[in-house]
């Protein structure tokens, strides 16, 4: 397959690109190498990819209409995987315009490219954050997502419905994937595991929000990638049983679907911290803080729909995933 992967120098994009190249796909990786976090880490990921056969790279911003048109003019893609976005719940409170440009304007350019050039399957990243104020666990794709608590989540919810409109109007097969707290080697410096590991090694306190009374469905990156690859190979078709009088939220009369990708386990934040301490052989100094704006207290994914489609269910426990991250961190940073 010839596949466009946007955000190829990002955390998930890098791992996905490695996996697709390993199975023999031809990839055009796209990234703008933004300064949201350490560009040298993005460049290091990219250097590993550009050394591999079958990988090409273009430094293009999703919000660049002319640049994106040029990317799609380069030839038809069998699949487009859109992982490029302005990430981060808390940063969306400080810099909302960055989310509008990347996640709304940028995604429109992706949709237009897929529409006019006939991409075989558009797969795009959504987030568990779309569930917002919904507190019924496990979180299912059938549940309401009309009450996001951050602009980041709102833009991702918008991506889902934007993709539906293009699937309905133009027949663009589209699948949205709601990721649940992804972690692993080559991870983002703004994520908890990276921050905690760095601080504990430096004998600095770690910020623990909601005084540690948080629950997350931590999902190891290899499980995310396995899920994405299986989804890529299964473009959606219109659901003949879909009833407009009783519309089922994650499916449609258009070729459009939404799936959760999570580890389907509730993990208390303190268990997560203890697992890091165990691997590092050091106790963390805790700075217990109140809940931050835009955050939610608990997440857990219902992945029965994903398993029904792909036959795969993420399963890596944090006691296995965290040591793999720490081993990478210590090698990469020589710490």
Protein architecture, described:
- The protein is an alpha/beta fold and 335 residues long.
- Helices cover 41% and strands 16% of the residues.
- The protein is built from eleven helices and 13 strands.
- A seven-stranded parallel sheet has the order 3-2-1-4-5-6-11, sandwiched between helices.
- The longest helix has 22 residues.
- The mean pLDDT is 96.
Brief write-up:
With 335 residues, the chain is an alpha/beta fold. It is built from eleven helices and 13 strands.
Question: Any chance you could write out the topology, listing elements then pairs?
Answer:
Layout: E1 2-6, H1 11-22, E2 26-31, H2 39-50, E3 55-59, H3 65-73, E4 79-82, H4 91-94, H5 96-117, E5 122-127, H6 151-170, E6 174-179, E7 182-183, H7 192-201, E8 205-208, E9 215-216, E10 219-220, H8 221-232, E11 256-261, E12 267-268, H9 269-280, E13 285-288, H10 304-310, H11 318-333
Rounded average pLDDT: 96
**Major sheet: arrangement of strands:** 3-2-1-4-5-6-11
> Structural class of the helix and strand makeup?
alpha/beta
What portion of residues belong to β-strands? 15-25%
Task: Give the proportion of residues in helices.
Answer: 40-55%
Largest sheet: 7 strands, parallel
Spans of at least 5 consecutive residues whose pLDDT stays below 50 are none
Question: What is the tally of helical segments?
Answer: 11
- What is the string of SSEs from the N terminus onward? EHEHEHEHHEHEEHEEEHEEHEHH
Number of strands: 13
The span between the termini is 40 Å
Computed over alpha carbons, the radius of gyration is 19 Å
Q: What is the global morphology? A: globular
């Amino acid at each position: 397959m010839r596949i466009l992967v946007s955000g190829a120098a990002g955390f998930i994009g890098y791992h996905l690109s490695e996996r697709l190249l390993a199975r023999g796909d031809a990839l055009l990786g796209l990234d703008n190498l933004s300064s949201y976090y350490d560009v040298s880490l993005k460049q290091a990921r990219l250097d590993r990819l550009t050394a591999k056969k079958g990988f090409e790279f273009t430094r293009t911003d999703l919000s660049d209409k002319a640049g994106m048109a040029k990317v799609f003019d380069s030839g038809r893609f069998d699949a487009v995987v859109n992982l490029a976005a302005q990430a981060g719940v808390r940063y969306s409170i400080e810099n909302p315009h960055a989310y509008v440009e990347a996640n709304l304007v940028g995604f429109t350019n992706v949709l237009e490219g897929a529409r006019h050039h006939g991409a075989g399957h558009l797969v795009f990243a959504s987030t568990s954050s779309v569930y917002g104020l919904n507190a019924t666990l496990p979180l299912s794709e059938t549940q309401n997502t009309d009450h996001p608590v951050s602009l980041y989540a709102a833009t991702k919810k918008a991506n889902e419905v934007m993709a539906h409109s293009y699937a309905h109007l133009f027949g663009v097969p589209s699948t949205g994937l709601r990721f649940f707290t992804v972690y692993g080697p080559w991870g983002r410096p703004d994520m908890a595991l990276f921050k905690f590991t760095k601080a504990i090694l430096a004998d600095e306190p770690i910020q623990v929000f909601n005084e540690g009374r948080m629950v997350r469905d931590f999902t190891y990156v290899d499980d995310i990638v396995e899920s994405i690859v299986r989804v890529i190979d299964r473009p959606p078709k219109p659901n003949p049983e879909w009833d407009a009088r009783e519309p089922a939220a994650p499916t449609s009369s258009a070729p459009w679907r939404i799936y959760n990708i999570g580890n389907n386990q509730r993990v208390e934040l303190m268990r997560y911290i203890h697992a890091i301490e165990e691997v590092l052989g050091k106790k963390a100094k805790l700075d217990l803080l109140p809940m931050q704006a835009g955050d939610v207290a608990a997440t857990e994914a219902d992945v029965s729909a994903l398993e029904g489609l792909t036959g795969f269910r993420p399963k890596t426990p944090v006691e296995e995933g965290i040591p793999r991250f720490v081993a990478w961190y210590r090698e990469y940073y020589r710490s």
